[in-house]
Amino acid sequence: MQNTRFSHASRILRAASAILGLSLLVGCTTPVLTTLTPDLLPENPSQLYTLSVRFAPHAAIVVPGSVSIQIVIDGQPHPMTKSPAGTDIYTYDHRAAAGQAELSYYILATYSSRDQRGAVMKRDEYTTLQHAKISGRYVFSLETGRGPVGARIGILGRGFTPQDQISLDNAPARTIPESSTALGFYVPAVPASRSYQVKITNATGTTVAGTFTVDTSNVTITPAALDLRVGETQTLTFIHSVVATAAGTLIDVMTDVPDSVIMPEVIVPAGSDSVRVQVRGRAPGTGSLFLKGYGTGEIAIPIRVTP
Asked: Is beta strand 205-215 parallel, antiparallel or unpaired with respect to 146-148?
């Protein structure tokens, strides 16, 4: 019985030692220095950029007054100071050179720790080489996070150009360049009751502006079909299920007989839920007008133009 109890106790001791060793090993995987600076820094007129790091030493006891945190930028060391944001956070305000597009740096921590026996040991810790891009192009926010097909949505930011193109996931949207700080787009005819990433693309790459939810909407059109002679005009009335906002709502109408009809762009004016447009027969042909993104999918209005 004594041998059995001793063997059982030994197994428990070995298991406890293994767990303790594993916990110490896992604890040591936490970095002493964690960089808090984002990879992309919005350009500012002062050309001053705050670089920050979190210092969390593994040692149980750090000798007071022994901690020195430095950031090395382009080979030049600079002292970092404690941030009001937290006692374990250190920052440095770096002034970039005119036209500088990227900062390369690493952070070095020197400190002394005292072990359980009271012995003092000097320690050095450092990060890998870090990179932060300075961008004159960035997005503040979408004007709103949801709306129906055809709604005009604004984006605020900086560094926009007339070459910018907006898409919802991979669906291109009609883009309206307004200024270097504002873009607009009409929600394209995509499936409703879903969320999409709004992307801004130009020659330099793609920027994600945010997430947009496309809400369900419906359009009723009268008459349900058009029968025209060449040169004749008839009125089409579009009734939208959602009252248009200040920018109006675009109803994007397509046709498979573009040579047969002449009609203006269909935009429901602000504060209204309907609009009337004149459709004119141009050349003989038979086909349809199409609208996508409403109700269950596609709406078709048959059209025939005779001599």
From this structure: parallel
